[in-house]
Amino acid sequence: MSFAFTVNGEPVEVEATGMRRLLDVLREDLALTGTKEGCGEGECGACSVLLDGAVVDACLVPVSQAQGASVQTVEGLATNGSLDVMQQAFLETGGAQCGICTPGMLMAGQAFLASGQDATDENIRHAIAGNLCRCTGYTKIIEAIALAAERSPHP
Ligand code: FES
Ligand code: FES
Predict the structure, then answer these.
(1) How far is CA 98 from the centre of its chain?
(2) Rounded mean pLDDT of 10-34?
(3) Residue whose CA is closest, atom 2 of ligand 2?
(4) Residue owning the nearest CA to atom 3 of ligand 1
(5) Residue ranges of the domains in the chain?
(6) Which atom belonging to ligand 1 lies closest to the Cα atom of 45?
């Protein structure tokens, strides 16, 4: 079957079975390997992308669910080689270490910024509750998201 949707604002059309994972379509069919696979079971958040603005685990989403939707991946964050506000904040605070969780953290961070919630420690922890990091102990990641929120105008 054929499925049409947008990825980072660009229209795409892919041939796949409806149950093919969005994660595989992104990484293998569209060569967007920024989205990572950790557990493959919806537990780690490494594969987080935005589907119509909501954070989803791409390892659990069948491509049929993306039909007509807007998908955003980590590749869509930088513009002309310039990091976006969240990426820059991760860089400055040391929020990215091994990098496996980082794309998912960035996307969860994007959704948090878009939500307009206050950047309290509790709210940020809640926003990334579905994203596991084995490296940093979360402190730097939370600092990064708070810094990005401080630098971003409220939506
Ligand atoms: S790879 Fe999707 S949640 Fe872990
Ligand atoms: S930076 Fe290594 S798992 Fe998060």
Answers:
(1) 16
(2) 98
(3) 98
(4) 42
(5) 2-74, 85-151
(6) 3
The ligand 2 atom nearest the CA atom of 105: 4
pTM, two decimals, is 0.96
Q: Is the Cβ atom of 42 under 6 angstroms away from ligand 1?
A: yes
Return the CATH number of the domain spanning residue range 2-74: 3.10.20.30
Pairing of strands 70-72, 48-51: antiparallel
Instruction: Report pLDDT digits (tens) over 43-93.
Output: 999 999 999 999 999 999 999 999 999 999 999 999 999 999 999 999 999
Give Cβ neighbours of residue 59 (< 8 Å, ≥ 6 apart): 21, 23, 37, 39, 40, 41, 42, 47
Distance in Å, CA 44 to ligand 2 centroid? 11
